[in-house]
Design a protein that fits this description.
6 helices; 275 residues; five-stranded mixed β-sheet; alpha/beta; six-stranded mixed β-sheet; Purple Acid Phosphatase, chain A, domain 2
C-alpha cells in the first residue's frame, strides 16, 4: 500500500517536471516590412499593400513594423498616400524612419512627417521619432531613428542622445528581453560603404554591455539576411517590399524567461511571406 502511494507521488512529480518547462515556454510572432518606397507614380504598390493587409489578417502577427524608406521621396502627398494605403491593417503597426522619409532641407520635416503618421496611427500619437512599446510583460521593442534631420544621406547614424536613452532603458528593465528596430543595419548583409552606419563602434560598445538583446532588425540594403554575432544577437536584414516578389517577413521568437541566460537560448525563425 505504501509502495503504491509512493509510486503515485513519484509519477505526479515526474509529470510536473515535464509540464513546468512547457508552461514557462512562450512565443512571440510579429511581422516586418522594409523599403516600401511608396509613390503615387507607382500605382501597383497600393494593390500590393492591400494584399499585405489580407496576408497579415491570415497570419495574425501580434504587431507589424515598417522598417523605413516607407516612401520613395520625401513628399507630403506620398507620406499621406502611404499611411492611407496601410490604414486597413488591423494589427498594431509601428513606423521606423528611413533615409528617404523625412528631411527638412528638401522634403517633409520630421515633425510634419510624424504629425501625418500620428493622424492615421493610434499607436504613434506622441510624434516621437524614437520610442518603445511592450507587446507583452517580457519583451520591450525599441524603435530608433538613424536618419538625418536635414539632408538626405545614405549613411545611418544613431545620435548620442538616442544611445543614452537606449542605455537608460536597458538599465531600467534588466530582466526584459529587447528587440531593436532601425533602418540602417548595424551588421549589414554585404559590405557597401555608402550604406554603412557612421557611429557603429559607439553603438556596438553599448550593446556589448547587456545580454538581454535578442535581435536587431533593419532594411536599407534590399537584401534578406540573418546573421548571429559572437554574443548570439541576431541581425536581421529584410527584403525590399517594393521589389518583386513583394514580400515581408514573419518572425517567431520562442523563449523561456526563467531559463534565459543569453540570446543563444532563444529560438528565432524568420520566414519570407510573398503577398
Amino acid at each position: 500500500m505504501i509502495k503504491t502511494s509512493l509510486n503515485k507521488v513519484l509519477m505526479v512529480l515526474a509529470v510536473l517536471l515535464i509540464i513546468q518547462p512547457l508552461a514557462l515556454a512562450k512565443t512571440l510572432e510579429f511581422a516586418q516590412v522594409a523599403d516600401v518606397h511608396y509613390s503615387f507614380e507607382n500605382s501597383q504598390l497600393d494593390k500590393y499593400l492591400y494584399f499585405l493587409s489580407l496576408s497579415l489578417k491570415k497570419k495574425s502577427p501580434e504587431f507589424v513594423i515598417f522598417l523605413g524608406d516607407n516612401v520613395d521621396k520625401s513628399k507630403e502627398e506620398d507620406v499621406i498616400g502611404f499611411m492611407r494605403a496601410i490604414h486597413s491593417i488591423r494589427e498594431p503597426y509601428y513606423i521606423v524612419l528611413g533615409k528617404n522619409d523625412a528631411h527638412g532641407f528638401s522634403g517633409v520635416p520630421k515633425e510634419d512627417y510624424l504629425d501625418i503618421v500620428s493622424t492615421f496611427n493610434r499607436n504613434q500619437d506622441d510624434n516621437k521619432n524614437y520610442y518603445y512599446f511592450k507587446p507583452n510583460s517580457d519583451i520591450i521593442c525599441v524603435i530608433l531613428d538613424d536618419s538625418s534631420d536635414f539632408a538626405q544621406s545614405t549613411h545611418g547614424e544613431i545620435p548620442d542622445e538616442q544611445l543614452k536613452w537606449l542605455e537608460n532603458l536597458l538599465i531600467k528593465y534588466p530582466k526584459r528581453l529587447f528587440l531593436i528596430f532601425h533602418h540602417t543595419p548595424l551588421v549589414p548583409p554585404r559590405v557597401e560603404y555608402k550604406y554603412s552606419m557612421n557611429n557603429s563602434e559607439n553603438y556596438q560598445n553599448l550593446l556589448k554591455k547587456y545580454n538581454n538583446i535578442l535581435l536587431i532588425s533593419s532594411g536599407q540594403y534590399h537584401q534578406e539576411s540573418v546573421q548571429k554575432d559572437d554574443r548570439g544577437v541576431r541581425h536581421i536584414s529584410a527584403p525590399a517590399f517594393k521589389n518583386t516578389p513583394h514580400s515581408y517577413q514573419l518572425i517567431k521568437i520562442d523563449y523561456n524567461e526563467n531559463s534565459y541566460k543569453s540570446p543563444s537560448d532563444v529560438g528565432i525563425t524568420v520566414t519570407n511571406i510573398k503577398v
